[in-house]
Specification:
The chain is α+β, with helices and mostly antiparallel strands. It has one domain (about 10-50, about 65-290). About 25% of the residues lie in helices and about 30% in strands. The chain contains 5 helices and 13 strands. It has helices at about 10-25, 110-130, 145-150, 160-170, 185-200; strands spanning about 35, 40-50, 65-75, 75-85, 155-160, 180-185, 215, 225, 235-240, 245, 255-260, 265-280, 285-290. The strands form 3 sheets. The protein has a 6-stranded mixed beta sheet. Strands 1, 4, 10, 11 and 12 form a 5-stranded mixed beta sheet that branches. A hairpin with a 4-residue loop joins strand 11 (about 255-260) and strand 12 (about 265-280). The longest helix has 22 residues, at about 110-130. The radius of gyration is 24 Å and the shape is globular. The termini are far apart. The model is unreliable at about 1-10 and about 100-105 (pLDDT under 50).
């Protein structure tokens, strides 16, 4: 009895759409903030601010109240990753037994592990661009820090050390969004914050050795969230996560995660194509603090 494998596809072919979503949208920040799909270039964030007027009851009709409509543009840029893998490079190493080159049998050793590594690294790079991206410095799109630096009505604060800076950021959050706001910090700032809590004998932290990446400011309901995208910046961003947007398409075949054997070039090739960009709906409701 012969076994026919013609109906089976490779790892990447079977998982292509989930892979592109994991590669682009799998970062921590993008799992928290607002996601706007269907953006193919530049799209509008359609905003509405409603202020109803409460009146004395009774008969009659006396319409009062305002509904202000406005827009902010979210611009995305086309991005890609392209990498070659030559199977011959593996033949002198321990994984050479996995190299299969023949008619219809081109496979690369540990294909799943290669794609998983690409996803993990790409998550980190997108995460960093979301916060620190600056087109003026060669990044593919402007991140939140760049956009917020250009807005005059963003609240600012600072403090000497992580604890003081986070406290200043919390105190600067507009009361209108205080019940919904979160405080985003780099993992380095978060670590300093927790150590300062210990040094000050503020026993409001997990002491069981757990890998804590979120912490509620004592006496409040506001979370401090560690995100790698802010590492090395000494910046703290306090905002309602629903006020922060990441735009992408994710609705058609423009986003790809492909891994194939190129007969013309006699090598394996990996390509990821997607688009992305960020925007803030209401900058006046955001605080950017600096650890001095």
């Amino acid at each position: 009895m012969a076994v026919n494998f013609d109906g089976l596809t490779t790892y990447v072919d079977e998982q292509r759409y989930p892979l592109i979503k994991k590669a682009v949208l799998g970062g921590k920040t993008l799992s928290i903030i607002n996601l706007q799909t269907g953006v193919k270039g530049t799209a509008a964030l359609n905003l509405i601010d409603v202020d109803p007027t409460v009146q004395a009851g009774g008969c009659g009709w006396n319409a009062q109240g305002d509904a202000n409509l406005s827009q902010r543009k979210i611009a995305t840029e086309l991005l890609k990753v392209q990498m070659p893998f030559c199977d011959k490079d593996f033949r002198n190493y321990y994984m050479n037994y996995e190299v299969k080159i023949g008619a219809g049998r081109e496979t690369l050793p540990f294909e799943e592990y290669f794609t998983s590594a690409v996803i993990e690294k790409l998550n980190g790079k997108v995460e960093t661009m979301v916060w620190q991206g600056a087109k003026s410095k060669g990044a593919e799109f402007d991140g939140f820090l760049t956009l917020l630096a250009e807005e005059e009505d963003v609240k600012t604060a600072s403090g000497s050390g992580a604890y003081a800076a986070i406290k200043a950021a919390y105190n600067a959050i507009p009361v209108e969004v205080l019940d919904k706001a979160a405080i985003f910090v780099g993992a380095d700032t978060f670590r300093s914050y927790m150590l300062e809590m210990v040094e000050k004998n503020f026993y409001h932290y997990a002491a069981d050795g757990a890998d804590v990446q979120e912490f509620i400011v004592p006496g409040t309901n506001t979370k401090v969230i560690a995100v790698n995208g802010l590492n090395g910046t000494s910046k703290i961003v306090a905002a309602d996560p629903a006020n922060l947007f990441y735009g992408c398409d994710m609705l058609d075949d423009k986003e790809t995660f492909d891994f194939w054997y190129s007969k013309d070039n006699r090598e394996f090739r990996l390509e990821v194509q997607f688009n992305g960009g960020v925007q803030v709906a209401y900058p006046s409701e955001v605080v950017v603090a600096t650890v001095a």
